[in-house]
């Protein structure tokens, strides 16, 4: 086999479908060479790839990846399709479901270690959004009863989600799968939709593959990245025609015969595992259930999906407690279901720049190399929560180091959250050069609960029914998700019937602040009231320290460098603070 020479369109070099399968095979061969995680099989490192493996008993046979992971062997079957809509009238989806029915019962592989996927070259808002989300729901819940209850709930699941599951169910049942909730749920948990764009005018999948190819080649062969990509496509097509199989050593030997000089092995698996663990822990701290009900805020999620099509920087903005971080978690978990990804927040991120973050995760390569590695198998979004709460310049520098590198990697986007007024007073601390490279941002505002979401809560959390009635005195406040979550901690939520009741509860609990801080805050507020109601000019001297008033993130007044403060009151009801 000679070094690839490009001439003419893909179709001129063979059938377009065959060439796309070759690109898909080349993509995963690069992942195997680099030791990258297999896209669609989080935690799995590829040991061997089978091509056109129907004779080995695999129905989704275009590619079969044999992987190893910390939990043991893992198999991912992939069927390549140029176009698939997943609609009720889509014959391609029906054919894929027939293949799923044929291979699902393979007795030689444990169900939870045997994943089934379709790789599509043409995506849509529905594929990237509700279809991926409902598959993530299936993987997230503990049993089929919870999954189907959530799917049928008003204001929780979208019609597109329900249509997808209905079509999937009808198709697999038509091909011999038992028509019961448990069986369908288990199949949905194993199913993956892998989105590629090799047929687009500017394919990001190819760009990411070429970046990985650069890392695979030694320094003296860096100029041959395009040639390596072409040769890998040829190898994949050749192996497909023969129903062949390659492991890493065999592939390296083939490339050596083509006079490629390869770099040494990079083992980034431990670093990816640490990143996955850290991101999972960060997301677990974000509450999203109210009264045991998870509201996905589907309208906002759909807006994010639409924004991702044309923007690399998306900001979620909203007042405190509306559920920005909950939506943020929904999108992050979708990405993490495919690959590891960075989830950054002001509490967990180390101070001191990229070098400190790399040290904590055990990353032995540059930031750009590691981000490219993640992007090559699906981590195309980096998540930054609570921009307005980053008060430490050293932690900000860590975010900006990453942001500058992200901006140089095609197709990688950034999703952030902050309060509605963030940046209005010139307090946006994100690096201007990185923002300029990322392009025009999209700002999506998150508001209070909609009528449909309120109805869903009333139906599924009866204890909140009275609080959420439209004529309730505190209706406008109780539609705030955070306030609702706090009210659930009251012994008898039904006793909260007026705004005065809410105010009294907040006075006693300070929204869940540590007990040692509540009395200090109460004394300060009480003194302020006395000053406000008194006559003439008065001054209050406040000293803060380790028992100072906290903002809930562990950054009290002393955390902002304030050790003391004078408050002066003047009769015209103006209060001035001097630090």
Question: What's the helix and strand layout?
Answer:
Layout: H1 16-34, E1 37-38, E2 41-51, E3 63-69, E4 72-81, H2 91-103, E5 114-120, H3 125-140, H4 144-152, H5 159-173, H6 181-190, E6 191-195, H7 204-216, H8 225-242, E7 245-247, H9 248-257, H10 269-284, E8 289-290, E9 293-294, H11 298-308, E10 313-318, H12 324-336, E11 343-344, H13 354-361, H14 367-375, E12 381-384, H15 393-406, E13 413-419, H16 432-438, E14 442-445, H17 451-460, H18 475-478, H19 481-487, H20 499-509, H21 515-533, E15 538-543, E16 564-570, E17 574-578
Parallel strand pairs: 4-5, 5-6, 10-13, 10-14, 11-12, 12-13
Antiparallel strand pairs: 1-2, 2-3, 2-7, 3-4, 8-9, 15-16, 16-17
Helix pairs in contact: 1-7, 1-8, 2-5, 3-5, 3-6, 3-11, 4-6, 7-8, 7-14, 13-15, 15-16
Keywords: Plasmid
Protein name: AAA+ ATPase domain-containing protein
InterPro entries: P-loop_NTPase
């Amino acid at each position: 086999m000679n070094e690839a020479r490009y001439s003419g369109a893909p179709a001129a070099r063979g059938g377009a479908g065959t060439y796309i399968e070759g690109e898909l095979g080349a993509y995963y061969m690069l992942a195997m060479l680099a030791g990258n995680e297999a896209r669609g099989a989080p935690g799995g490192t590829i040991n061997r790839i089978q091509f056109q493996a129907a004779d080995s008993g695999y129905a989704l046979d275009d590619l079969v990846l044999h992987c190893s992971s910390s939990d043991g062997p893992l198999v991912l079957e992939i069927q390549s399709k140029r176009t698939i809509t997943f609609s009720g009238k889509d014959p391609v989806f029906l054919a894929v479901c027939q293949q799923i029915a044929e291979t699902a019962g393979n007795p030689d592989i444990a169900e939870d270690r045997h994943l089934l996927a379709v790789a599509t070259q043409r995506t849509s808002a529905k594929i990237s959004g509700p279809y991926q989300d409902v598959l993530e729901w299936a993987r997230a819940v503990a049993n089929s009863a919870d999954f189907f209850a959530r799917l049928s709930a008003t204001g929780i699941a979208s019609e597109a989600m329900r249509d997808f599951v209905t079509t999937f169910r009808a198709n697999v049942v038509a091909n011999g799968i038992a028509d019961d909730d448990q069986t369908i749920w288990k199949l949905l948990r194993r199913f993956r939709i892998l989105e590629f764009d090799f047929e687009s005018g500017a394919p990001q999948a190819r760009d990411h593959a070429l970046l990985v190819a650069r890392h695979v080649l030694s320094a003296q062969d860096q100029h041959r990245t395009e040639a390596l990509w072409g040769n890998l496509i040829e190898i994949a097509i050749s192996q497909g025609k023969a129903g062949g199989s390659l492991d890493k050593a065999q592939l390296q030997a083939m490339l050596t015969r083509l006079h490629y000089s390869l770099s040494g092995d990079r083992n980034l698996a431990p670093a990816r595992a640490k990143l996955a663990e850290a991101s999972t822990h960060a997301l677990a701290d974000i509450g999203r259930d109210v009264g045991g009900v998870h509201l996905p805020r589907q309208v906002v999620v759909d807006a994010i999906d639409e924004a991702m099509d044309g923007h690399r920087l998306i900001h979620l903005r909203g007042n405190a407690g509306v559920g920005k971080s909950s939506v943020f978690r929904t999108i992050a978990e979708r990405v993490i279901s495919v690959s590891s990804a960075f989830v950054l927040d002001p509490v967990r991120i180390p101070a001191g720049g990229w070098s400190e973050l790399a040290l904590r995760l055990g990353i032995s390569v540059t930031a750009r190399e590691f981000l490219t590695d993640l992007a090559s198998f699906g981590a195309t979004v980096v998540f930054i929560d609570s921009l307005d709460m980053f008060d430490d310049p050293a932690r900000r520098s860590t975010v900006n180091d990453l942001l500058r590198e992200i901006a140089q990697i095609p197709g990688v986007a950034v999703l952030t959250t902050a309060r509605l007024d963030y940046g209005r007073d010139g307090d946006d601390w994100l690096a201007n050069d990185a923002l300029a490279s990322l392009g025009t941002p999209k700002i999506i505002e998150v508001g209070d609960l909609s009528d449909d979401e309120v109805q869903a809560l009333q139906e599924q959390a009866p204890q909140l029914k009275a609080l959420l009635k439209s004529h309730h005195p505190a209706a406008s406040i109780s539609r705030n998700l955070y306030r609702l979550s706090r009210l659930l901690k009251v012994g008898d939520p039904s006793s909260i019937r007026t705004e005065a009741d809410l105010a009294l509860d907040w006075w006693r609990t300070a929204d869940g602040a540590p007990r040692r801080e509540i009395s200090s805050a109460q004394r300060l507020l009480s003194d302020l009231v006395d000053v406000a109601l008194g006559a003439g000019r008065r001054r209050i001297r406040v000293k803060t320290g380790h028992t100072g008033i906290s903002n809930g993130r562990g950054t009290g007044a002393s955390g902002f460098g304030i050790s003391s403060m004078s408050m002066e009151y003047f009769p015209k009801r103006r209060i001035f603070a001097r630090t």
